[in-house]
Amino acid sequence: MPKRKSVKHKFSIPAQSDPRITTFMYSVRLDQESAPLVWQQIRSARKLYNDIIAFMRQTYDETQVFILDKAGDEAKNLNSEIEDLNKQFKIARADQDDAGMIEIAQLRLEKRRVLSGLLKEVRANNKNEVKAIFFDKIGLRTSCGTYQIRCQAVNESNLGWGTANDVLARAIKAFQSRIKVGQPPKFAIGSEKLQDSLWIQFTQAGGEDIQSLLSGECFGFALRVPDGGAGRRKYGEFRFRLGSAKNKDYATGTFYYNRPIPEGSKIVSVALTRKRIGSAFKYSIQLVTELPEKAGAEKSPKTDKFCSLYFGWARGVGDEKISRNFMALADQGNPNEARLFFLPESIEADLARVKDLKSERSQIRNDITQKIKQGEIEIPFVSDETANDFEAIKRLPATYISPSRVHRLCHQMIEAKIPRPDGLEKWRLKDRALHQNIAFIRRRALFRRRDFYRVTACEIARKYQTIVIRSLDLKKAMTRLDTTTGEKSDINKKSRTGQRLVALYELKTSIMQAAAKEGCVVIEIKGEKTATTCAYCGKENLVASQEDWHLMVCPDCGAKVIRKKNGAAVAWQFAAPVIDDLVDEARSLAAMQEEKRKILKSEKTEKAVAARAKNRAARERQDATGTPGGSRA
Ligand SMILES: [Zn+2]
User: Fold this and answer.
1) From ligand 1's centre to the CA of 593, what distance in Å?
2) What are phi and psi for residue 542, nearest 5 degrees?
């Protein structure tokens, strides 16, 4: 077993989720007249999101131009050479010249590397200037352009300010995560959204007392619980303010009160959520709640000390059944005793169905473009734009024509009121149906996967005192991909990796939340060595088996072991000698954080009390003298 000192540095203690913050969700029947008002708010919120994204993208473009300008002639020349290569690449692609494509891609990659090196230097040298001119435009401060767009939506479109804050926060999060990979954030497409939420936030320090919501004292949001409390077939009433206070627009209805909110709870914020299920909408309210001290302390008794988890979504060749696991759990050092976790088959079946529908979509795309190319379907002249698209379809091989290009042709005809050729219209309807079907099944599968993760995470967190997980490194995964060339496969690889990472982060989040809820400590272990160390002999020479990607082979002791089982067992072995120290450290960190939180909270309350006193004094002065003074809160 490895010595304690040598492994200590591999561990870190992540910020543990707050166990006292929990969400109460109730399904809702909305009063008929409320639905259009809710829709209006959702529409304004979606518009605000894309307005902010548009502003961010523009800022991003301006920054690029500014930096290139500063970088001088060498960088400018490189940039135009890269643009030329982009054109050449497109031509090679159209000619299906694979060798040419690879050659151009490699040349372009070389130039991009040099350029990004130059730009990096310029960026570093002009850091403050870039920040001052451009990036100060993006943020939550009142001087930021993004914040001003948010205010405009509140003032001019009557969007509720809680919702506007949520939209701004989401846009900034999207910006931050995209800018890490050197890209501006993307627009959201309303018709593809399955869920929208409107928010009311309570500004009171620590949240609004549940009592004031129940008594109707709080104007933003009120609840009336049914007589006899929560239970089966118990319905209460609610009122949720939409937009500004002066408009007096409310969403009202009944909610199913199946789970009581403990007395003494504080409500931090409330969301009214609309989910699309097929062609219908389902509504719910969610109360983000801080439980009173004692309620958070109930924890399940643990039967086991600690386990280690090894995540992974990568699929390879080899045993089909084994390839569908997403995690291994070890609660001892022997990899053979480690447990593999699999997704339910129905979710797998849905994901497989998505794949089939996608290939069906490609098939009908191939058919329609073939017919257009051969003149079997004639495309009438509508505008120069249609003529261009038509030319492109004739020139490009089918695999490079996106269905949206053909849809664009159709839409121009629809707008110009020109009847579509029969075959084209048939394709349009069929492709649209397929697209919607794919989106629906995919989302449904992803929702169910998330639920499955939650249940699994709870089961583990109830059993063990401590969970050791391998940390996930998004940045590393991205750069590893960056070093490979071969344009076509690269893009596919990137998006596949992205999807896998999303799934793994979701799994990790579920574990963190379940752990917090069940009073279980989470420790992170850095990944590298857990993947290459042999759980049997401890040497670091494990290699993937040639015939089965999921098996690892040890050249030193000859062991053959399933990759994830080995990883989990090795993580367990590394953690075992130091686990008590790590748990102590995590506990004292948590105690420190709790202390800090309490101080912050009391400071906030003091500030609020002081501000109220100041305002009161100002009002009294005004009453006495008749001159205005101080601002009313
Ligand atoms: Zn070995």
Assistant:
1) 42
2) -60, 140
Q: How far is ligand 1, taken at its centre, from the CA of residue 58, in Å?
A: 55
Residues 185 and 101 in one domain: yes
**Cα 573 to middle of ligand 1, angstroms:** 14
Tell me the residue range of the domain where 462 lies.
Answer: 4-16+300-338+440-581
Per-residue model confidence as pLDDT tens digits over 387-397: 888 888 888 88
pLDDT exceeds 80 at position 483: no
Query: Which residues have CB less than 5 Å away from ligand 1 (the ion)?
Result: 534, 536-537, 554, 556-557, 559
CA of 480 to the centre of ligand 1 (A): 27
Q: DSSP readout, 514-567? A: HHHHTT-EEEEE-SHHHHHS-TTT--S--EE-SS-TTEEE-TTT--EEEHHHHH
Predicted pLDDT of residue 155: 92
| CA dihedral of 25, 28, 33, 37, whole degrees rounded to 10 | 20
Give 238 Cα–ligand 1 centroid separation in angstroms: 63
Question: If you measure from the C-alpha of residue 553 to the centroid of ligand 1, how many angstroms do you get, rounded to a whole number?
Answer: 8
Q: How far is the CA of 539 from the centre of ligand 1 (A)?
A: 6
Whether 32 is in a domain gets the answer: yes
Is residue 467 very low, low, confident or very high in pLDDT (cuts 50, 70, 90)?
Answer: very high
**What pLDDT, on the 0 to 100 scale, is given for residue 604?**
76
Q: What is the pLDDT of residue 320?
A: 59
Whether residue 459 sits in one domain with residue 314:
yes
Identify which of 320, 310, 338 has the alpha carbon closest to the alpha carbon of residue 548: 320
The upper half-sphere exposure of residue 455, i.e. CA atoms within 13 Å in the direction of its Cβ, equals 10
| pLDDT band per the 50, 70, 90 thresholds, residue 161 | very high
The three-state DSSP-derived secondary structure of 358-391 is HHHHHHHHHHHHHHHHCCCCCCCCCCHHHHHHHH
Q: Please give the distance, rounded to the nearest whole angstrom, from the Cα atom of residue 559 to the centre of ligand 1.
A: 6
| Model pLDDT for residues 577-627, shown as the tens digit of each residue | 999 999 998 888 888 888 887 888 788 778 777 877 887 787 777 666 654
In this structure, are 229 and 315 located in the same domain? Answer: no
Q: 541 alpha carbon to ligand 1 midpoint, in Å?
A: 8
- For ligand 1, the distance from its centroid to the CA atom of residue 555, given in whole angstroms, is 7
Q: Are residues 236 and 259 in the same domain?
A: yes
Rounded mean pLDDT, 27-44: 95
Give the mean pLDDT of 247-263. 90
Q: Which residue in 95, 84, 87 sits closest to 395, CA to CA?
A: 95
- Higher-confidence residue: 227 or 95? 227
**Residue 612 domain-assigned (yes or no):** no
Q: Do residues 563 and 453 both lie within one domain?
A: yes
Q: Do residues 233 and 199 share a domain?
A: yes
Domain count across the chain:
4
